[in-house]
């Protein structure tokens, strides 16, 4: 090394593997006439750079300003290299192992260059369904371990041909070290089979699938993170057939369209929604159902929104290019089971549902549901975080620098788990509802894989307080087996702590007012909570107020039979005999009188299988049933509330709109919201023949005003300046926007989930940071 030369070793941390980071470094270093090398290791990327100090500084500046499209740099550290190797050029060298500290990049939608390749008849990848490069394609879905190299993915089974190998080895090529790189000669193959295993459409399989969809068939399509079921979204017979076979009777189906122009025929797409649809994550985006054309009524019954996504793999692009209408593209499973990912399981589990199977021979290692987002209150809100977003890590806020290794296991529904390591939170993709045995098995398998991928060995395990959650029970068994501490975290405390962490609130931040509205969670006093006003720090909370507890008649049955909640509210606020006299002509009362009222009254009075819950979610169910929405049965969690929201007249909503009231009173030092006045108004409106839409609108306005007013009182009384909103009820756009805007107008700071779901999908992060804070502050 000459006297004018200088040498540095540069450590880059973040999402920097599998995104073309090394070739970017190589190109920049070559342009700046640097010598040295770049390689992957378990902590990220290492660079040896030999040249002038100015050249090295130019390299760093360029990396910071123009990283590869999928890269996310967390930090760049520079160290003098006193005795560098004798470099004669700048090279990319083999990856090295070690303790895992780097991240895995989420799967990315097909980039424009690869899309051009598959549509260009002169290109050797014309029509090839598995085309990708360092800027797009599978990542988490195919990885078995890191460092991220071909040998540690499911692409290890495919040896590259000479042409692909030439691209792979050429630093100037965008497929340089693209681990899934492949072509029709050497890569995965696609085929179509029927239920007997006979092959179809061997000449042009994609065209054959398009023809089958057009004829009304249901096709199982193996994609990037799982198998989907597809049919013509304009053909109501086909959609109804899919519902019947899949046993998914009411929940809305996801849709795929060729482009935003096609979506605009059926839904409103603003600039922000278009950006979400066309982003590298390519999620399902929930859109208002407004358009000149109508989809099959069975696509989204009882709703005024549609969930659309755009093609995100070459296979999807090739298929949608042959159709002039959207398709249903829903998870390939029986209702409530995990989406299938293997060919064998697809044939077994989807027999009797699919008519044909479009399969390929690249293994899916990690199941990834489609992510779901919605543009709410001027920002993106993630409703389900999976493909395209997971497992991108979240840096922990100031004060969490020396956090122990923590495993947080989440809740029962909408489950995720969270690993805390190296000042980062790694939140899993959406796992689903652990009530289902198959989902629990998938949860355990995925957790084992994450533990291996990130070489994560917890020092402590965090669980929910509810003793019947399978995640809780599994955490207890695991902690006992490995002889490590177990910490139970209150459900709603975790909800609010998750929002604080997402927004970067430091460990020693002032308390916030947390408003957690959801179905239910185990409270600190052993009862069921769900309409909570909490004074929250990371390490602790104080319950300041809540909805009045109401018995859940029949226990868990009340979650799926909304009429039980209506009856419970009526029994709680009125004399039943008086109700039957004054409102005898109401269809609601006539319906309830067909139930075993005497037995139900005894259950209510004696607390027999009727645990009391301060649940906001059950109030929504009760009001929905009162106006005839999902009165007898809800086939999926949240159905009644979603359909109730769909009835709202947005022109009549707001803080000054006509609304139903509630009364507040002090009970044991806490502010309690009693909804009895609301029920007087609803019964009177039903008697007057007021429409379901008007009642739903007045109810939503009433919730917004009551929650806002109580929050203002509590913030003033406790000198709180920030309000954090979370819980599944805040996935209701009307409630979230109404409460947020009302509080901001009064000068308060409002934070709510954007990177993680407001439902229990964000719970595991909250559990993890609560335990981390308690450990750090107890030192």
Please give a handful of descriptors for the protein shown:
779 residues, alpha/beta, Alpha-Beta Plaits, DHBP synthase, Nucleotidyltransferase, domain 5, 4 domains, nine-stranded mixed beta sheet, 23 helices, 21% strand, globular, ligase activity, zinc-finger
Concise structural overview:
This is Carbamoyltransferase HypF. By secondary structure, this protein is of the alpha/beta class. Helices cover about 30% and strands about 20% of the residues.
What is the fold's blueprint, element by element?
Blueprint: E1 6-15, H1 21-31, E2 35-41, E3 44-51, H2 53-65, E4 72-80, E5 90-92, H3 112-119, H4 162-169, E6 190-194, E7 199-200, H5 205-214, E8 219-222, E9 227-232, H6 236-246, E10 254-256, H7 260-263, H8 271-277, E11 284-288, E12 305-309, H9 314-320, E13 327-331, H10 343-349, E14 356-360, E15 372-376, E16 379-384, E17 394-395, E18 406-408, E19 418-421, E20 424-427, H11 437-453, E21 460-464, H12 470-482, E22 486-489, H13 491-502, E23 512-522, E24 528-536, E25 541-547, E26 550-551, H14 563-573, H15 576-582, H16 587-593, H17 597-606, E27 612-615, H18 616-626, H19 639-646, E28 663-667, E29 670-674, H20 676-688, H21 692-718, E30 722-726, H22 733-745, E31 749-751, H23 763-777
Parallel strand pairs: 2-5, 8-14, 10-12, 11-15, 18-21, 21-22, 23-30, 24-27, 25-29, 30-31
Antiparallel strand pairs: 1-3, 1-4, 2-3, 6-7, 6-14, 8-9, 9-13, 10-13, 11-12, 15-16, 17-20, 18-19, 19-20, 23-24, 24-25, 26-27, 28-29
Number-wise, the strands total 31
Number of domains: 4
Our count of helices gives 23
Main sheet: which strands, in order across? 7-6-14-8-9-13-10-12-11-15-16
Give me the CATH fold name of the largest domain.
Nucleotidyltransferase, domain 5
Q: Over all CA atoms, what is the radius of gyration?
A: 28 Å
The CATH class assignment of the largest domain is: Alpha Beta
The separation of the N and C termini measures 48 Å
- Can you name the CATH architecture of the largest domain? 2-Layer Sandwich
Structural class: alpha/beta
Gross morphology = globular
Give the uncertain stretches in residue-range form: none
- The helicity comes to 25-40%
> What is the arithmetic mean of pLDDT?
95
């Amino acid at each position: 090394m000459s006297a004018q030369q200088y040498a540095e070793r540069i450590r880059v941390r973040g999402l920097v593997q599998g995104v073309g980071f090394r070739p970017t470094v190589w190109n920049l270093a070559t342009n700046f006439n640097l010598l040295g090398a770049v390689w992957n290791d378990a902590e990220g990327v290492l660079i040896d750079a030999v040249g002038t100090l100015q050249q090295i500084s130019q390299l760093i500046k360029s990396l910071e300003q123009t990283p590869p499209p999928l890269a996310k740099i967390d930090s760049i550290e520079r160290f003098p290299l006193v005795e560098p190797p004798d470099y004669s050029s700048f090279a990319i060298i083999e990856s090295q192992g070690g303790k895992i500290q780097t991240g895995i990049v989420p799967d990315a939608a097909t980039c424009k260059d690869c899309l051009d390749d598959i549509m260009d008849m002169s290109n050797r990848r014309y029509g090839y369904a598995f085309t990708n490069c360092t800027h797009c394609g599978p990542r988490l879905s195919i990885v078995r371990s890191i460092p991220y190299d071909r040998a540690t993915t499911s692409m290890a089974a495919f040896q590259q041909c000479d042409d692909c190998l030439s691209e792979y080895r050429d630093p100037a090529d965008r497929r340089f070290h693209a681990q899934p790189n492949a072509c029709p000669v050497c890569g995965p193959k696609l085929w179509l089979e029927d239920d007997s295993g006979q092959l179809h459409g061997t000449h042009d399989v994609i065209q054959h699938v398009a023809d089958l969809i057009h004829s009304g068939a249901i096709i199982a399509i193996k994609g990037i993170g799982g198998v989907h079921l597809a049919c013509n979204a304009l053909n109501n017979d086909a959609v109804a057939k899919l519902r019947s076979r899949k046993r998914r009777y009411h929940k809305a189906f996801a849709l795929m369209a060729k482009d935003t122009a096609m979506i605009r025929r059926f839904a409103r797409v603003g600039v922000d929604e278009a950006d979400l649809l066309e982003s590298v994550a390519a999620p399902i985006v929930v859109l208002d159902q407004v358009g000149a054309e109508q989809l099959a009524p069975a696509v989204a019954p009882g709703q005024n929104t549609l969930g659309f996504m755009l093609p995100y793999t070459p296979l999807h692009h090739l298929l949608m290019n042959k159709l002039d209408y959207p398709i249903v593209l829903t998870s390939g499973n029986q209702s409530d089971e995990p989406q299938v990912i293997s060919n064998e399981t697809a044939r077994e589990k989807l027999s009797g549902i699919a008519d044909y199977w479009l399969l390929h021979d690249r293994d899916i290692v990690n199941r990834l549901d489609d992510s779901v987002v919605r543009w709410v209150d001027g920002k993106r809100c993630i409703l389900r975080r999976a493909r395209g977003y997971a497992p991108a890590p979240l840096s922990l806020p100031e004060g969490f620098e020396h956090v122990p290794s923590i495993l947080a296991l989440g809740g029962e529904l909408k489950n995720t788990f969270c690993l805390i390591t190296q000042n980062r939170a790694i939140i899993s993709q959406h796992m689903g509802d652990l009530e289902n045995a198959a989902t629990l098995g998938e949860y355990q398998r995925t957790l084992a894989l994450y533990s291996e991928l990130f070489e994560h060995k917890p020092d402590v395990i965090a669980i929910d307080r509810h003793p019947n959650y399978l995640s809780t029970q599994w955490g207890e068994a695991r902690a006992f087996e490995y002889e490590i501490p177990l910490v139970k975290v209150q459900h709603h405390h975790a909800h609010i702590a998750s929002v604080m962490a997402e927004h970067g609130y430091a460990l020693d931040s002032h308390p916030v007012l947390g408003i957690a509205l959801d179905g239910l969670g185990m409270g600190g006093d052993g009862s069921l909570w769900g309409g909570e006003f909490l004074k929250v720090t990371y390490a602790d909370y104080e319950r300041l107020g809540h909805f009045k507890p109401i018995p859940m008649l029949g226990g868990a049955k009340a979650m799926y039979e909304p009429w039980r909640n209506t009856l419970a509210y009526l029994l709680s606020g009125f004399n039943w005999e008086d109700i039957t006299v004054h409102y005898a002509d109401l269809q609601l009362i006539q319906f309830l009188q067909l139930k075993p009222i005497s037995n139900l009254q005894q259950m209510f009075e004696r607390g027999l299988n009727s645990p009391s819950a301060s649940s906001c979610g059950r109030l929504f169910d009760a009001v929905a049933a009162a106006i005839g929405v999902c009165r007898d049965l809800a086939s999926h969690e949240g159905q009644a509330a979603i359909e109730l929201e769909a009835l709202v007249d947005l022109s009549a909503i707001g803080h000054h709109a006509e609304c139903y009231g509630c009364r507040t009173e002090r009970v044991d030092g806490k502010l309690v919201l009693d909804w009895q006045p609301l029920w007087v108004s609803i019964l009177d409106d039903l008697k007057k023949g007021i429409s379901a839409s008007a009642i739903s609108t007045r109810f939503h306005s009433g919730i917004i005003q009551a929650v806002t007013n109580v929050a203002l009182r509590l913030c003033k009384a406790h000198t709180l300046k920030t309000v954090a909103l979370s819980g599944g009820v805040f996935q209701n756009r009307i409630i979230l926007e109404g409460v947020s805007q009302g509080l901001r107008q009064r000068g308060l700071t409002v934070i709510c989930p954007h990177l993680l779901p407001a439902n229990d999908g964000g719970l595991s992060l909250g559990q993890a940071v609560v335990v981390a804070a308690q450990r750090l502050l107890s030192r």
